[in-house]
Amino acid sequence: MKKITFSLLLMLVALGAQAQLLWKISGNGLQKPSYIIGTYHLAPVTFTDSIKGLKEALDVSEQVYGEIIMSEMTKPENMTKTQAAMMLPEGQTIDKLYTAEEMARINAMLKSIIGMDMTNPMVAQQIGKLTPQALQTQIGLLMYLKKHTGFDPTQTFDGYFQQEAAAKGKSVGALETIDFQIETLYKSMTMERQKQLLLCLADNMEFNEEQTENVIKAFFSQDLNGIEKAMDAKLNNTCDGTPEEKETLIYKRNDNWMKQMPEIMKQKATFFAVGAGHLPGERGLLAQLKKAGYTVEGVK
After folding, report:
1. By the 8 A CB rule, do 223 and 14 touch?
2. In this structure, are residues 197 and 132 in contact, taking their beta carbons and an 8 Å threshold?
C-alpha cells in the first residue's frame, strides 16, 4: 500500500467480532464447510499453536489453496523470472536514477539499518542494480529482521499450510500464478512512483517502523480491524498509497479470488490461506463471502 507496509502486504495485511484470523465458511449449497485464514509471511510457524481450531480445520479440509503454490517459487525458471523482474535494465544502476542529494538520503537509511551504504562497492554490487520497488522490499525485510531476529525463510507461516497438506497427501492449489504476482509486486508502478516511494521510506523511517509494529501487533492479537487500521495510517502527503494502488494490491485481487472460490469450495472442502490484509473491510473477502450467501463465522 505505501512505504514499508506496501512491501509487507506482497509478500502480507478493535478486538471483537473481527478478533479472528481463522474463519469457517458454510451454507449456500456447500456439502462440507471450508475455511479461510489470514496470514503474515514473516510470522513464525509456532504461532499456529495459538490459533484455536486450526489443526482441526486443516485435518477436515481436503485441499489447501494459497495465493500461489509456494514450492513453485523455488523452481529455477521462476527464480530466474523473479530476479529479472527485480533488476534495472542492463547498464542502469540505482544511483543513476537519483540526484546526489537523494542518494545521500537513501544511503543514510541503509547505513542506519546495515551499517554500510552504496558507497561500499560490495553493497553497490549486491543491491545497486535493483529497481526502487525491489530495493524497497528488501529494505523492508531488513528493517523487520533487525527488530525481529530468528526468522527462517524455509519455514514461513503461510507456507506451513501448504507443507502440511502435501505431507498428508492432500492437493495444493493457487488463486494466482507466479507470473501475476511478479507483475503485481515489481511491475505495477511507474518508475517515477517507485523512485518516490523509496525516498518516502528513507525520509519517514520512524513512521514506517511504527506502522509495521502496529500491523504485527494487530496480527498477533488476531485483530483484523487493527490490521486494516494500521495499514491505512497516513502521512497525508504524496507518500500515502493511492486508491489505484490499493485497488491493484487488494481489491482487484479479492474480486478475482471471489470468482474462483465458490467452485473450488463446491468441489472439495478447502482451507484457504491468504494475506490477512485481504480479509477485512467492505470489499474484503469475509464481507464478499457473506454477500455471496455464505455463512462466515470465526472459529472458536
Report:
1. yes
2. yes
Kindly report the pTM of this predicted structure.
0.90
Phi, psi of 198 (to 5 degrees): -65, -40
Q: What is the DSSP string of the chain?
A: --HHHHHHHH-----STT--SEEEEE-TT-SS-EEEEEE-TTSBGGGGGGSTTHHHHHHH-SEEEESS-GGGGGSHHHHHHHHHHHBPPTT--GGGTS-HHHHHHHHHHHHHHHS--TTSHHHHHHHTTB-HHHHHHHHHHHHHHHHS----TTSBHHHHHHHHHHHTT-EEEESS-HHHHHHHHHSSS-HHHHHHHHHHHHHTHHHHHHHHHHHHHHHHTT-HHHHHHHHT---SSTTSPPHHHHIIIIIHHHHHHHHHHHHHHHHS-EEEEEEGGGSSSTTSHHHHHHHTT-EEEE--
Q: Distance (Å, rounded) from C-alpha 124 to C-alpha 269?
A: 49
The arithmetic mean of pLDDT across residues 47-55, rounded, is 94
The position carrying cell 507443507 is 163
Chain segment 224-275, per-residue pLDDT in tens: 999 999 999 999 999 999 999 999 999 999 999 999 999 999 999 999 999 9
For residues 132 and 191, the answer to whether their CB atoms sit within 8 Å is yes
Show the cell assigned to 50: 495459538
b/e code 29-55 from CB counts within 10 Å (16+ = b): ebeebbbbbbbbbbbbbebbeeeeebe
Query: What gap in Å lies between CA 188 and CA 146, rounded to an integer?
Result: 28
Phi first, then psi, for residue 215 (nearest 5°) are -65, -45
35: left (phi over 0), alpha (psi -120 to 50) or beta: beta
